[in-house]
Specification:
Largest sheet of chain B: 4 strands, antiparallel
Number of domains of chain B: 1
Order of helices and strands of chain B: EEEHEEEH
CATH superfamily of chain B: Folate-binding superfamily
Number of domains of chain A: 6
CATH class of the largest domain in chain A: Alpha Beta
Shape of chain B: globular
Structural class of chain B: alpha+beta
Distance between the termini of chain B: 28 Å
CATH topology of the largest domain in chain A: FAD/NAD(P)-binding domain
Chains: A alpha+beta (985), B alpha+beta (107), C alpha/beta (417)
Number of helices of chain B: 2
Oligomer: heterotrimer
Strand content of chain B: 25-35%
CATH class of chain B: Alpha Beta
Shape of chain A: elongated
Radius of gyration of chain A: 38 Å
CATH topology of chain B: Folate-binding fold
Largest sheet of chain A: 7 strands, mixed
Helix content of chain A: 10-25%
């Protein structure tokens, strides 16, 4: 059994006991524990079930590489699935539960025994489940889905918050072990701005556990000294619990800091996402121990040798009373010594090497431990817990030589440098024969904006696995550690393991990928490492192959008869370990998940019951329904009121761009399809803009402010885009033209005063002459209106007598309220975007985005009058001369009126006879805008119809839902007040 | 995540401050040009895997457009320069040649 | 070379002998001197082109040449969505053809590609988007594509984890294609490869084309890292690298190569059966059979061949999806990656003859590549076999850019995958 030792534990504080629950059971740990160490301390080795076969799984590692020990953590709005216990700090009251089983962890009916899982090798689902056709979706897939998928589903909105932070530095050091600290100290002393991140809560990496001496000191003491020095530097910054998640182009590094994970509800952000631009990056990310592939290596109680010693030294937890050590290298002997020092039993060390010799080995022998050379594990005995190992010759085929009783197996297959960050952005690897591992190739590093190396790997991350080498590699002080002899690569144990053993030798513990699966993939031609990965799912689990990948590709290489570096690795992708979506989103959630643009009158709309419609990043009132009034009724009321007395629209979102300069007229003539240079001062003119492809992209009223300046109104969504468009042409094509532009959209509030009583309201406000004579249609004036500095544009998008009044944004709200107050006696009432749309449709005015959709040219919309024939050139003119566009055989704008007065559905098509060669029904037109017109008491619509204007009076069929066919007649698109009598007053 | 130096304001800025604008040094063809010329101007793109000239706007900064010479295979930046030119300046060409001796020049 | 059939029985038989008897799924031959047709690119589109050349036209003296490993490009790095609810007639025709072929593909190839018509929703979150999708539904009904417009309550029924009344963009309804869904992307490439190999075609991996040989305006063959290979016809089917191959043949394409990113969460138990696309906020999500939430967004904006994208796009996508599915906030991103898509001037694909005789291109699928594979291969095979396009490919020629005859899908859903 695993248990808490009576003494020791460098990271725990026995004076601070913490209570937590696992599957409802109350357990105890100490401050400084991880969830994993606390579970082990409470004799909970079995913690989960595997992904595919639902086999019992125990804790195998002590860090980020853990594939098995994932739990659900928390409850309700703070529940999180797939939480890695080996890196989660224990806190009082933590609620944890195991995953992927039913009905319970101990008894999972989904478990597949050795016999059954033979029928489910890698890729079996590609070969089966094909008949009958519907069975995949309805029978097999639901079973697969239900049995896969590890964690439970969170159900509530996250109760926590997250934040983003930014930093810049000359050097970012990733990893707070002795190599990283050495590199940081050197750079800090040289005056560089240094940031050091350590993913755990503790500094020093493996050195405090593994021992040795640095600069004549115990590693822990040396680390403490360096931390003090770094902390004292004004140019240094140390951050623990911060994992470098990804390395991106041009020195961009993403850091994932755990802030409030262990203190839920204290108001701090749960995670902080750091976005750092670093001049240089040092990866001092250490190395990860590899498991060995022998039969039964997944039985709970089989652990990494380094993890076993971490649990003993760091947390005073004994994973087992009797621990057999299996290794191909000297380092694992440190575990034997640690166990012996703790008073635990090590029945034997099985060393796959024929003649292991060296300082550590002799030290273990000297303690009376049997060291069996040339031996390996034939098979682990036990189901939910190790009961013993069967010993065999590593060189043989698994004949059992003896059986040793034990409850823990500590295995070591050697070490793999953590090369993830090095690789994220294009760094290449080379194969290190001596340590049988990939390590960074310094001649092919990731390169930055200048094409030079931007990353340097140091220490174990660079393949300098032993303490003295690691420090030398990082420019640190001299160090001493026990000398180690060469390791021997061991990819399968025993070397000649027959199928029956390979079938139980696991590579990827979470995804249940075995040695036999990789060999099967190779046999079937899935020879690329990417094919093998995808076919077997090797390395696709939540640990992303940290434990399994090197073993897997060694076995693949062997099966293909090629060297490991020829096989290569799969691509390392961010993040290094999984990071929360909450952290990725940061503070931008809810109302502000995107920026929100508000007009100066926004608060009034909100207070007065506006039903919002998003328009770009703006919100505009769709209408203002009153209590008990439906949306549709509200819109009809707003229209009737505007047509009959007085409506007010917040038009502030309209784009307002000033174009000024000696060449401004010439410029606008290129930008708009019609002439703007000839517009007299004081006048307004409607204009169209096309892109270079000839398609209509924006429209609006252009105002001649003065001899050298124009004010261009754009659509609400279009202001920024059009301003960018103008600047593009001015800066990149006609840079010698003297023109200046300014986007003043947010500098002005704009209010449309619309309806028969509009003039009365303005006259009541007073200060400017708004008479028919002084301010005729399509003119403007500047002055003081009711005490407000104002520009009045007499333009109309509704066909009514209408003034649009611009005032400084800061006075917008006051002006709006003043208009409402003064207009009360004339029936003033605000109206929203829907009323605006209906009224413009009643008048046959087009709307960008409705009548135009990026495939429509002005000629299609009967807007030929707004295209100058005199101009040699304007943007889009050449495009409109191409054969498909310069052609009357196109769909063109008409009005549509149903025979029964009903409202045509949005977007419905008019059918034509027959079908096209692809069997699709031929069509001859479509509806672009359709509304119920309260003014006319019937449905009205606009649409694009093949040669439509030539076909007035024809009736078209529009098949709609459920077999209903609408019949509509082609009519003039101007439905209301064709002669414009209402606005010419 | 690119960083580029805006030649107008001199700042080296984050990609998030910039708006990309596609291939640089396109010659505009308007009315009077042939169909082939116009199609080439509007659509035919070099899209090289390697040295590329492109347009950027310092959209959330000084607002100026500028041009960049960049490698699309490594994202190395050879230099940036003002947009008011029809071909890359000699200094940029030299910087590219120094890094990519096999480069055949802007075609 | 024949093909041993896959079945549950075969798996059971092999289980008894520890699966030692399985044969290679596809052969790995050295190239011959000459082929009737050489296809550059052994991704889904290239392999499907080869398959239908053999199946529909009896042309089997075919080599499919691949720079890396088959299926290793965009076929193996997309978000596996299959739909055909396109607005414009030519798009709807070819995507629906593809979707219909997907329905029977596992049986046709004797390889389970796990096509799962789980249903697909495109959320309407602005009045403008609602109108666009309603228009699409009416168009689809006339095109023979089964889609419908559904209201927010029905959306909530289909996707219980969705938040339909978010503060900024409440869900106003959705364009629903019940027979849209997902398939296992790698299996599509592998299944086609196995079937092509069984027809005697040569799939030549690790073989990069370094030049294209022409004479008198006609293609003669290709230079490769495995020597010269002569051909009667050449099909270039290399999404992401189309411009590079076109350059070798001496012409330019209306294409830009852009990075498109995707990511997955850690696996959780089934919580979302349908595919949901939220185009106003730029994010889409489905759940894989393994339990991962599979997520994508829009493309990056600059030319890029690195298969790495810019991080801020991931942030935007995740933000959008947390607003749409608040429960994902406490899930974790397991892996992110990028692919290189080629984008045309009108965001629609190109299946076309080229200025060089007997060279044909299939490219420009942008973000729609995976879902179109069978239809694209079907139409491309006809184009290559006959030398001129059939009705499915007729509108997708290069000539449209000169004539101004575009097929613009952004009308309904800006850049949806």
């Amino acid at each position: 059994m695993s248990t808490r030792l009576a003494t020791g534990g460098r990271l725990i504080d026995r004076t601070k006991p913490l209570g937590f629950r696992f599957n409802g059971k109350r357990l105890k740990g100490f401050a400084g524990d991880t969830l994993a160490s606390a579970l082990l301390g409470a004799d909970q080795m079995l913690v989960g079930r595997s992904f595919k076969y639902h086999r019992p799984r125990g804790i195998i590692a002590s860090g980020v590489e853990e594939p098995n020990a994932l739990v659900g953590l928390g409850t309700g709005a703070r529940f999180e699935p797939d939480q890695r216990t080996t890196t989660t700090e224990l806190f009082d009251g933590a609620e944890t539960s195991s995953q992927n089983h039913w009905p319970s962890l101990e008894t999972d009916i989904g478990v597949l025994n050795n016999w059954a899982y033979r029928f489910l090798p890698a890729g079996f689902y590609y070969k089966t489940f094909m008949f009958p056709r519907a069975a995949w979706k309805h029978v097999f897939e639901p079973i697969v889905r239900q049995s896969a998928g590890l964690g439970k589903v969170p159900t509530e909105r996250d109760a926590d918050r997250y934040e983003h932070a930014y930093a810049f530095c000359d050097l970012l050091v990733v990893g707070g072990g002795v190599a990283g600290l050495s590199a940081a100290l050197e750079a800090g002393r040289a005056g560089k701005r240094v940031i050091v991140w350590e993913q755990t809560a503790h500094w020093g990496g493996r050195s405090p556990v593994d021992g040795g001496q640095i600069d004549g000191m115990a590693p822990e003491d040396w680390v403490a000294g360096v931390l003090e020095q770094l902390a004292a530097m004004p140019n240094g910054s140390l951050r623990a619990r911060c994992m470098a998640a990804g390395l991106y182009d041009h020195g961009y590094v993403l850091g994932y800091e755990s802030v409030g994970d262990a203190t839920p509800g204290d108001g701090r952000p749960r995670h902080r996402l750091w976005r750092v631009r670093a001049g240089q990056i040092v990866t001092a990310t250490g190395a990860i121990e590899r498991p060995l592939a022998f039969a039964g290596n997944d039985v709970p109680g089989v652990m990494l040798a380094s993890a076993v010693r971490d649990y003993v030294v760091n947390w005073a937890v004994s994973p087992g009373d009797r621990t057999v050590i299996v290794t191909n290298n000297d380092d694992a002997y440190r575990t034997a010594l640690v166990l012996l020092d703790a008073g635990l039993v090590v029945p034997a060390v099985l060393d796959a090497r024929e003649t292991p010799t060296g300082e550590l080995i002799e030290a273990v022998r000297a303690r009376g431990v049997r060291v069996l050379a040339g031996r390996g594990v034939a098979k682990v005995k036990g189901g939910k817990r190790v009961q013993g190992v069967q010993v065999c010759a590593q060189a043989g085929e698994g004949a059992v030589l003896e059986e040793i009783g034990c409850d823990c197996v500590a295995m070591s297959g050697g070490w793999s440098p953590v090369v993830h960050l090095w690789s994220h952005c294009g760094g290449k690897l080379l194969w290190d024969e001596a340590n049988a591992c990939f390590r960074p190739d310094p001649s092919r590093p990731p390169t930055g904006a200048d094409g030079a190396a931007m990353v340097r790997a140091v220490g174990a991350a660079n393949g300098a696995l032993r303490l003295p080498e690691a420090l030398a590699d990082a420019g640190g002080p001299p160090a001493v550690a026990a000398a180690e002899g060469p390791m021997a690569p061991v990819w399968v144990m025993p070397q000649g393991a027959p199928p029956a053993l390979r079938f139980k030798a696991f590579l990827d513990y979470q995804n249940d990928v075995k040695v036999s699966d990789v060999q099967l993939a190779a046999r079937e031609g899935y020879e690329s490492v990417e094919h093998t990965k995808r076919y077997t799912t090797l390395g696709m689990a939540t640990d992303q192959g940290k434990l399994s990948n090197i073993n897997g590709l060694a076995i693949l290489s062997d099966a293909l008869g090629q060297a490991i570096p020829v096989t290569g690795t799969t691509t390392f992708r961010p993040p290094y370990t999984p990071i929360s979506f909450g952290a990725i989103a940061g503070e931008a959630r809810g109302e502000i998940f995107q920026p929100l643009r508000r007009t100066p009158m926004h608060e009034w709309h909100e207070a007065n019951g506006a039903h919002w419609e998003p328009v770009g990043l703006w919100r505009r009132p769709y209408s203002y329904p009153r209590a008990g009034e439906g949306l549709r009724d509200a819109v009809n009321r707003e229209i009737s009121n505007t047509r009959n007395s007085l409506g007010m629209l917040d038009a502030s979102t309209l784009g307002k761009i000033v174009v000024k300069g000696p060449d401004a007229g010439k410029f606008l003539d290129m930008l708009y399809t019609n002439m703007m240079s000839t517009l007299p001062v004081g006048k307004c003119r409607y204009g169209l803009m096309c892109n270079e492809n000839g398609f209509l992209m924006d429209d609006g009223v252009v105002v001649r402010l003065s001899e050298d300046s124009w004010l261009c109104h754009t659509t609400s969504g279009g202001a920024d885009r059009i301003h960018g468009w103008m600047e593009d042409w001015l800066q990149c094509e006609w840079w010698d033209w003297k023109v200046y532009t300014a986007n003043l959209t947010e500098q002005f509030a704009q209010v449309a005063i619309v309806g028969p009583n509009a003039r009365k309201l303005l006259e009541k406000l007073g200060g400017m002459d708004v008479s028919k004579e002084a301010l005729p249609f399509m003119t403007w004036a500047e002055g003081e209106l009711g005490g407000f500095r104002a520009r009045i544009f007499r333009i109309s998008f509704s066909g009514e007598l209408s003034y649009e009044i611009a005032v400084p944004a800061s006075e917008g709200m006051a002006f709006w309220k003043a208009c409402l107050a003064a207009g009360e006696e004339f029936g003033a009432m605000p109206y929203g975007t829907e009323a605006l749309h209906v009224m413009r449709a009643e008048k046959g005015f087009i709307m960008i985005g409705d009548e135009s959709d990026g495939t429509v040219i002005p000629q299609d919309l009967g807007l030929g009058w707004a295209i100058s024939k005199k101009k040699e050139d304007y943007l889009g003119k050449r495009a409109q001369q191409r054969s498909f566009m310069d052609n009357p055989d196109r769909w063109q704008l008409v009005g549509l009126e149903t025979l029964d007065g009903s409202v045509l559905p949005d977007g419905v098509y008019a059918v034509a006879e027959g079908h096209n060669p692809n069997g699709q029904r031929n069509v001859q037109g479509r509806v672009t805008s359709t509304y119920f017109s309260p003014t006319l008491g019937k449905g009205i619509a606009m649409g694009l119809v093949h040669r439509g204007p030539d076909r007035m009076g024809e009736v078209l069929d529009f098949p709609a839902d459920a077999g209903k066919v609408f019949r509509a007649r082609i009519v003039d698109p101007v439905f209301y007040d064709k002669d414009g009598e209402k606005q010419n007053v | 995540m690119l960083t580029l130096t805006c030649p107008c304001c001199g700042m080296t800025v984050e990609e998030t401050e910039l708006a990309p604008g596609g291939e640089a040094h396109l010659k505009r063809f308007g009315p009077g040009s042939s169909d082939a010329e116009f199609e080439g101007y509007l659509f035919a793109r070099k899209n090289p895997r390697g040295v590329h000239f492109e347009r950027w706007r310092h959209a959330y900064g000084c607002g100026k457009w500028f041009l960049a010479a960049r490698c699309t295979a490594t994202l190395e930046v050879f230099g940036t320069y003002p947009a008011q030119t029809t071909e890359p300046p000699a200094s940029i060409v030299a910087a590219i040649k120094a890094r990519r001796p096999d480069w055949e020049g802007l075609k | 070379m024949g093909m041993r059939r896959y079945s549950a029985f075969a798996v059971a038989r092999e289980a008894l002998r520890f699966h030692q008897g399985w044969e290679r799924a596809w052969a790995s031959p050295a190239p011959k001197k000459r082929y009737d047709v050489v296809i550059v690119g052994a991704g889904g589109h290239g392999l499907a082109t080869a398959y239908y050349l053999g199946k529909n036209f009896g042309i089997t003296n075919v080599a499919i040449i691949e720079k890396g490993w088959l299926g290793g490009g965009n076929t193996g790095r997309n978000t596996t969505i299959i739909r055909s609810n396109y607005l414009q007639d030519p798009s709807a025709a070819i995507y629906e053809k593809a979707r219909a072929l997907y329905e029977d593909l596992s049986q046709d190839l004797n390889y389970n590609v796990m096509f799962s018509p789980r249903g697909l929703l495109m959320l309407g979150q602005t009045e403008h988007e609602v109108r666009g999708y309603k228009r699409t539904v009416y168009a689809n009904n006339l095109q023979g594509v089964e889609t419908e417009w559904i209201g927010p309550e029905r959306v909530k029924e289909l996707v219980p984890i969705i938040n339909i009344d978010g503060p900024r963009y409440p869900v106003l309804g959705a364009l629903y294609q019940a027979r849209g869904g997902t398939a296992r992307h790698d299996a599509v490439a592998w299944g086609y490869a196995r079937a092509c190999s069984a027809m005697g075609m040569d799939i030549i991996q690790q073989c990069e084309v370094t030049g294209i040989r022409t004479a008198g305006g006609q293609v003669q063959g290709v230079d490769t890292t495995k020597g010269v290979i002569d051909c009667g016809k050449l099909a270039i089917v290399v999404a992401g690298h189309s411009s590079v191959l076109a350059e070798m043949a001496g012409f330019r394409l209306p294409i830009e190569s852009l990075a498109l990113q995707a990511l997955v969460s850690e696996p959780i138990k089934p919580c979302m059966d349908v595919v949901v696309m939220a185009n106003t906020v730029h994010g889409y999500m489905s759940q894989s059979d393994k339990g991962e939430m599979v997520i994508g967004g829009g493309t990056d904006g600059f030319n890029n061949y690195t298969q790495r994208g810019s991080w801020h796009h991931v942030e935007e996508t995740v933000r959008a999806l947390i607003e749409t599915f608040p429960m994902i906030s406490r899930l974790k991103m397991l892996r992110q990656w990028g692919g290189i898509v080629d984008m045309t001037g009108d965001r629609s694909p190109i299946l076309s003859a080229t200025p060089v005789g007997n060279i044909f291109v299939n490219c420009g699928w942008g973000t729609g590549g995976f879902k179109s594979i069978p239809g694209s291969g079907w139409a491309m095979a006809e184009l290559v076999a006959k030398g001129s396009p059939g009705p499915l490919a007729a509108e997708f020629g290069l000539d449209r850019f000169r004539e101004g005859r575009f097929i613009d899908e952004s009308v309904a859903a800006g850049g949806a995958p």
